[in-house]
């Protein structure tokens, strides 16, 4: 009886049940967050409404940089093939936004056709008008890399007022739209052109709330000597520090991302290590895509909540009859005080508020009388979503990750160094001697044997205590020496014979030379007399 009285309370206590993360995100957005956004005109101020394609699309990588920093060449390097609409040159060549995506046949889809395709996540770009859509295309081609990710190539950023005005659309706003929806933003710099133009500075500031997605690539680093490279790297970090106002340092990858010979090969090992780090970062995107979309929805919900408080506060302050225009000017000028009051009353972090100056500019064109008063039920629904439903989705994300095979970007440049002698670190460190017929440790074994026989071996073996006296001379931490002991004590008898002792010293040498120790002993490092034992 009267069960309907407690329906809302029960719904609030019991989180929604979802089959997949993607379906859960769609349902939460449409039923709980979208009503709040529509009620307080969120889409007119911040970001257009999300569609199903935004939740279903593959991870996207956005490339941003000044002209001739190698953005298009970087994509060509990853795919290991040309793509439709590609133009490369020292002058500003890419004058369009090109979404490079998987397709059964090669071809180009123009912008106006692209924004009416419900399967593509670009429908809301329609708001930027024909000036932009005439400069937006989708290049489709069959490529194994594009089966896991899509890449967005952007026009080179120019310096000077004339070029910015002649674009005909708000370049920074378009990039901000993409930044909200992509999984990774890569800023490319040329080692010879570190000056950050006004437009580039404006673009980086427009990406302000997406620092977690940003990575920096210092490209064409093979064209300068090591000493100059250190200075260039320092200058880049200094320049970025003035624009990106974060206490953390943005990760910078140094390299030469094209398929030509290195002009100055001195730093080849550094470039290889940096390339592998960047590739690992990009390869992890499909695995973390669901988590990224969940994170972006939480960010959007927090902003929508704050926006609702701002709009309802302005509505509350407006007179019902006379003096509306004067009151509107006064409220816009005093928006900072309204921010502070909302922050105090609702315990909201200052970082959740939209940019003050931008909000003031947008409010100038709005009719305050059409704003809605505070509707607690809408806000409570979003609070419930953040407190309960999101937590359940987090569990589902982990379940999906554990049930699926490891999702990684494959093909193209990602395959080139995966196997064989050109893999990063092949034949170095613990991998030294991997292709040799003889045991690699045997080269230095006579020297290790001399030490071994000074440690009082009994029945051809030394005790752990005696081995420790010699091993600690390396000054390596006990945790590292403990790992070396486990790898070297192959028969697990707590003692080392001459071959195991030689192996332990070889692994100490590997570590002292700056290489990582393997988690399991590679087969080529097994002493010849122990190989039958392990088999």
UniProtKB/TrEMBL annotation:
- Membrane-related topology note: Peripheral membrane protein
GO biological process, alphabetically ordered: endocytosis; endosomal transport
Which CDD domains does the entry link to?
EH, EHD
- The coiled-coil regions, if any, are none
Domain (EH) ranges: 444-532
Give the matching PANTHER family.
EH DOMAIN, EH DOMAIN-CONTAINING PROTEIN 3
Spell out the protein name for this chain: EHD3 protein
The upper taxonomy is:
Eukaryota, Metazoa, Chordata, Craniata, Vertebrata
* Gene name, Swiss-Prot/TrEMBL: Ehd3
């Amino acid at each position: 009886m009267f069960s309907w009285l407690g329906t809302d309370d029960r719904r609030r206590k019991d989180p929604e049940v979802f089959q997949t993360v993607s379906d859960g995100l769609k349902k939460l957005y449409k039923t709980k967050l979208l009503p709040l956004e529509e009620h307080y005109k969120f889409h007119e101020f911040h970001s257009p409404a999300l569609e199903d394609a935004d939740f279903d699309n593959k991870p996207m990588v956005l490339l941003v940089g000044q002209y001739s920093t190698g953005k298009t060449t970087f994509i060509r390097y990853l795919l290991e093939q040309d793509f439709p609409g590609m133009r490369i040159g020292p002058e500003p060549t890419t004058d369009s936004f090109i979404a490079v995506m998987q397709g059964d046949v090669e071809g180009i889809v123009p912008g106006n056709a692209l924004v009416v395709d419900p399967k593509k996540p670009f429908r809301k770009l329609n708001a930027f008008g024909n000036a932009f859509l005439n400069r937006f295309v989708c290049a489709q081609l069959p490529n194994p890399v594009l089966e896991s990710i899509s890449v967005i190539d952007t026009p080179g950023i120019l310096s000077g007022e004339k070029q910015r005005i002649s674009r005909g659309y708000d370049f920074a706003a378009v990039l901000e739209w993409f930044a909200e929806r992509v999984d990774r933003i890569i800023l490319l710099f040329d080692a010879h052109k570190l000056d950050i133009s006004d437009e580039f500075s404006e673009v980086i500031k427009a990406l302000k709330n997406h620092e977690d997605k940003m990575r920096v690539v210092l490209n064409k680093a093979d064209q300068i000597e090591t000493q100059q490279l250190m200075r260039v790297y320092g200058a880049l970090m200094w320049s970025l520090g003035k624009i990106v106002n974060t206490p953390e340092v943005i990760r910078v990858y140094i390299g030469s991302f094209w398929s030509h010979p290195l002009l100055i090969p001195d730093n080849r090992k550094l470039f290889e290590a940096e390339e592998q780090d960047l590739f690992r970062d990009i390869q992890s995107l499909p695995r973390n895509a669901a988590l990224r979309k969940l994170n972006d929805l939480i960010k959007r919900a927090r902003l929508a909540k704050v926006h609702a408080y701002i709009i309802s506060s302005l509505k509350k302050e407006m007179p019902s009859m006379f003096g509306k225009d004067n009151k509107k000017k006064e409220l816009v000028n005093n928006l900072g005080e309204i921010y502070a009051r909302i922050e105090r009353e609702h315990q909201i972090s200052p970082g959740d508020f939209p940019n003050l100056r931008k909000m003031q500019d947008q409010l100038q064109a709005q009719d305050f009388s059409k704003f809605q008063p505070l509707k607690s039920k809408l806000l409570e629904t979003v609070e419930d979503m953040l407190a309960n439903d999101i937590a359940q989705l987090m569990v589902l994300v982990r379940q999906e990750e554990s049930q699926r095979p490891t999702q990684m970007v494959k093909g193209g440049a990602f395959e080139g160094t995966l196997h064989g002698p050109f893999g990063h670190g092949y034949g170095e460190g613990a991998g030294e001697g991997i292709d040799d017929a003889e045991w690699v440790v045997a080269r230095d074994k006579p020297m290790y044997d001399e030490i071994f026989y000074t440690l009082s071996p009994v029945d051809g073996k030394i005790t752990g205590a005696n081995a420790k006296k010699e091993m600690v001379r390396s000054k390596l931490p006990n945790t590292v020496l403990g790992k070396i002991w486990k790898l070297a004590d192959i028969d697990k008898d707590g003692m080392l014979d001459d071959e195991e002792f030689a192996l332990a010293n070889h692994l100490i040498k590997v570590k002292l030379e700056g290489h990582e120790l393997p988690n399991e002993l590679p087969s080529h490092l097994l002493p010849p007399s122990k190989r039958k034992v392990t088999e």
